[in-house]
Specification:
Shape: rod-shaped
Radius of gyration: 40 Å
Pfam family, one: BTB
Number of strands: 11
Protein name: NPH3 domain-containing protein
Largest sheet: 5 strands, mixed
CATH superfamily of the domain at 26-190: Potassium Channel Kv1.1, Chain A
Domain BTB: 56-130
CATH class of the domain at 26-190: Alpha Beta
Strand order of the largest sheet: 4-5-7-6-8
Organism: Gossypium raimondii (Peruvian cotton)
Domain NPH3: 229-491
Number of helices: 24
Helix content: 40-55%
Oligomer: single chain
Length: 566
């Protein structure tokens, strides 16, 4: 497409696919006619020369390269160079036919971009793509190449193609945004990053079928991905500052908080391998890399959607783990733990599983769960017992998932068991199961250590089957088994005593019905004398049973004493 007003020919592909594939849109900028006739720009080692009949009177150094140019061609289109040349001449430089030297250390885009600018100033056509347009636009602004100096100058021409590249193609939007990484903060100040972010947000909030997506790096159509999450993969390639800008734009577009939270989790999974930041740049000192990691995690926490259930509990726990390792702001970490604590009543035990990655570590990180449970206890002081019991069941279920880990320390296991108040458990069956699994996986524990593990488990909160199993369990400490057996006897005694105390005038008929034979019941009456005899006999039977229980108790105590002596 040739535009007389822009002097720019755009050649673009119709497929707008993943960032990783396809050719970018292409534009050829035709500059105004130059005041100096030049044949070409040629390079000799680290020097660039303009082949022309006029001798060079200006040398511009950009990085390690020197450009031997002409003041007339350059200053006529650059306000910045014009001022520098005037200042140099005022200082007495360049008189007597000498060449002026200007050093451009901070030029956006460096040598490659300045080569394009020189071509433009001398009237040569300039090829630009979505990858090169942002640095060129920033450099044009740096050098003040506006239409005030020359009609159809470089700022206006690059601006036209920049807008086209950003809004016409999903692929090229990311090409432009990625190229902005090398020209910060110019790209931010000139709102290129904002324009790209707004374009991405608009397209992410639009049905992907509304525009062509093309193919991703695997050769598959992007439209084959989830209709809600198709944009995650490309957004996750952005570095943290650009990712933040994109997420802010996406939020303003009203994208569902759950999708925003999932996108943040997707980005984190791509940039963090376990707890290691995937940022391999040997030119950056180690202490700056650590600072970048801390800023990254803090930024991720701050950008999380505030809406309830917009982010999974498991991902938030992972952020806590990263935050603890990188030592992020303690107040920020505390707020994150409080947020997770408020979600515990809706969580499953599997949601609390966050992997460790060290060889000697536990499979899952119990420490972060302990922190969150403690935060929950502070929040739940006024909660009903029913709500506490929900979290109690959750933690007991979590204990059963991690109890077999041979690296799980006794301290961490006990901290998890004891983190909740005693009224947070209405049934100890899962707790008993977790304790039994832990003792089986840690057979070297001393008797006192095993007893301390079982301390939180209570007889009356176990089902009948669990009690019977516990009393036959050789892994439990002898003290606990003995205690349970005695309590079982007390229970039986109370049951018999309760039956005895129930014999009163109001319940005599019930006792008679239990003790009489079928024939007497059929007749519907019992002689008073016979009734008294039956009652006395039942009382005698109860006394005999009580005596037998007392004897069993004494024998059991003697056996326990002998075992202790051995």
């Amino acid at each position: 497409m040739r535009s007389k007003m822009m002097g720019c020919r755009e050649e673009h592909q119709s497929t707008h696919g993943s960032v990783l594939g396809g050719k970018p849109n292409h534009c050829v900028i035709y500059p105004p006619k130059s005041s100096i006739v030049a044949e070409e720009l040629e390079r000799r080692n680290n020097d660039w020369f303009v082949r022309t009949k006029v001798a060079s009177d200006l040398m511009v150094q950009v990085g390690d390269f020197s450009f031997h140019l002409h003041k007339l061609a350059m200053v006529s289109k650059s306000g910045y160079l014009n001022r520098l040349v005037f200042a140099k001449r005022s200082e007495g430089h360049g008189h007597n036919g000498g060449s002026l030297k200007i050093v451009l250390d901070d030029l956006p885009g460096g040598t490659n971009t300045f080569e394009s600018i020189v071509n433009f100033c001398y009237g040569f056509k300039v090829d630009v793509t979505a990858t090169s347009i942002a640095p060129l636009y920033c450099a044009a602004n740096f050098l003040e190449m506006s239409d005030d100096l020359h009609q159809g100058n470089l700022i206006s021409k690059t601006e036209a193609f920049l807008s086209f590249a950003i809004f016409s193609s999903w692929k090229d939007t990311f090409k432009v945004l990625k190229s902005c990484e090398s020209v910060s903060p110019w790209s931010k100040d000139l709102l290129i990053v904002k324009q790209c972010s707004d374009a991405i947000a608009w397209k992410a909030s639009t049905d992907p079928k509304a525009f062509t997506l093309g193919q991703n790096s695997n050769g598959n159509l992007n439209v084959g991905e989830s209709s809600d999450t198709w944009w995650f993969q490309d957004v996750s390639t952005l570095r943290i500052d650009h990712f933040i800008q994109v997420i802010e734009s996406i939020k303003r577009k009203g994208v569902k908080p759950e999708l925003v939270g999932s996108c943040i989790a997707h980005w984190t999974a791509k940039w963090f391998s376990g707890t290691t930041f995937v940022f391999d740049d040997p030119t950056i000192p180690k202490h700056l890399t650590q600072k970048l990691q801390r800023i990254t995690i803090e930024s991720l926490i701050n950008m999380l959607p505030a809406e309830k259930n917009s982010v999974s509990c498991n991902f938030l726990l992972y952020l806590v783990k990263l935050g603890l390792k990188i030592q992020v702001n303690s107040e920020l970490l505390s707020k994150l733990e409080t947020r997770i604590a408020s979600m515990l009543e809706q969580c499953r035990a599997q949601d609390l599983l966050v992997k460790n990655y060290g060889d000697k570590d536990t499979t899952y990180d119990a420490g972060i769960v302990i922190r969150v449970v403690k935060a929950y206890v502070l929040l739940a002081l006024k909660n009903s017992r029913a709500r506490l019991c929900i979290v109690g069941r959750l933690i007991d279920g979590y204990l059963t998932l991690i109890a077999r880990d041979i690296n799980l320390t006794l301290i961490d296991f006990k901290l998890l068991v004891d983190a909740l108040p005693t009224n947070a458990r209405s049934c100890d069956n899962n707790l008993y199961r977790a304790i039994d699994m832990y003792l089986k996986a840690h057979p070297s524990l001393m008797e006192e250590e095993r007893a301390s593990v079982c301390k939180a488990m209570e007889y009356h909160r176990l089902s009948e089957d669990a009690r019977q199993h516990a009393m036959r369990n050789g892994r439990l400490p002898l003290k606990i088994v003995t205690e349970f057996m005695l309590l079982e006897q007390v229970k039986m005694t109370r049951s018999i005593s309760a039956s005895k105390s129930n014999i009163n005038p109001r319940t005599t008929t019930q006792v008679i019905m239990k003790m009489n034979n079928k024939k007497c019941l059929e007749k519907g009456f019992i002689a008073p004398q016979k009734e008294i005899m039956l009652i006395r006999k039942e009382v005698e039977n109860m006394k005999m049973q009580l005596n037998q229980l007392q004897m069993c108790k004494l024998k059991l105590q003697k056996q326990v004493q002998r075992s202790c002596i051995k």
